[in-house]
Amino acid sequence: MTVALEFRDIGVAFGPHQVLHDVSVEVDAGGWLGIVGPNGAGKSTLLRTVAGAVPYDGSVLVEGLPIDSRSQRERAKLVAYVPQRPLFPAGMAVFDYVLLGRTPYLGPLAAESRDDISDVWEALEALHLVEFAARDVATLSGGETQRASFARVLAQKAPIVVLDEATASLDVAAQHEVLELIDRLRKEMGITVVSAIHDLTAAAQFCGRVALMDGGRIVGSGQPGEVLTEELLGTVFEPSIRVIDVDGSTVIVSLRTEETLSDQ
Fold first, then answer.
1. Mind listing the pLDDT tens digit for each residue in 20-36?
2. What is the pTM of this model?
3. What's 174-241 look like in SS3?
4. Number of domains in the chain
5. For residue 200, what is the domain's CATH number?
């Protein structure tokens, strides 16, 4: 398999505080790598290196070449980055918001082509957003704004999509819908997905590979069944973590400890 995206010996420091320590992990083309770990583990910081949003040591390689050797326009053609809280400008129609995904393909002062417009309509149709095309993007619900974000990503046509906690603000049903959508688009279009994800059960069920982070380091990586174990998760989160099988699907839960119960 071809490696689509590789983090190689990534280090990030904010002043005297070292946030990431020699982080190395990769994802094959067409795969889904889930980055999991407790709050403050460094998940978002790692993903922000792809967007060039933080200075770092080491290398972020896309298709074998350092991403920082490419222009901003070339980078945007290869990687679509969706932050944890995307900005949705008030007064902008959904169509125009999705059209922003075509920006890397436009020259200075160039107008959108017929093909650009067609790409936007195709993205809106794929995400079932055609009826919202004229709506103010700031008036959409949580699930609808996530779909608008992914429509913009589809219009961008980057082969690698990096998502920072894409479902963090959604309820359980909407989370599952969005994850199913991401997985369907990944399979249909051959997209490579890298996502920070807080829901361990979702990571076990949707991600082909998982990297577990703690204290700015990778403490385990591999297939979900190899990483999301009670023993390893217990060292990072708490010993009350349980990994169970429910109708063939992995479910990860945190049980209340005897100490917690005794406090009641």
1. 999 999 999 999 999 99
2. 0.89
3. HHHHHHHHHHHHHHHHCCEEEEECCCHHHHHHHCCEEEEEECCEEEEEECHHHHCCHHHHHHHCCCCE
4. 1
5. 3.40.50.300
